[in-house]
Amino acid sequence: MISQPFDIAKRPSFETAAEVRREEVRYFIGVDLGQAHDPTAIAVVRRLRFLVSHDVQLSTPTWKEGEPTIYQCGYLERVPLGTTYPAIVAHVGRLLQRPIWSGKIDLAIDQTGVGRPVCDMFQSAGLSFTAVTRRAATPRPTRGDPGGCQK
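Below the sequence we write its predicted structure tokens.
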């Protein structure tokens, strides 16, 4: 029996024959600014997503979640009462520069209580952030409504 020559060009490649998995890690730091009798709280959460693609040979592959996302709180701090807002801004700025999450972290600041002036301090310090406003007893935000969340 004579075998036919094997055409390597028609053989499926690894990328087209199998799914490819990757992990995506992102960090989120949340700051709840305190006031005279309410300490500032800082939390860092790590999000670990497990992504799968069947079309990695394309220039822009489609990645889908392969397993449930994991959220882990690895840092939690209550800033002492009496700490000034400029000191808190400087402290958060130093936290954002830690090598473990460098370039992979998003900052969210609750501006409900102290409002815009303290958020302006973060902006003046060159820190990029998302301002969040909590609302009590209001309907859920509608499409196009700026990011608020219920208390």
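The chain has one domain: 22-150.
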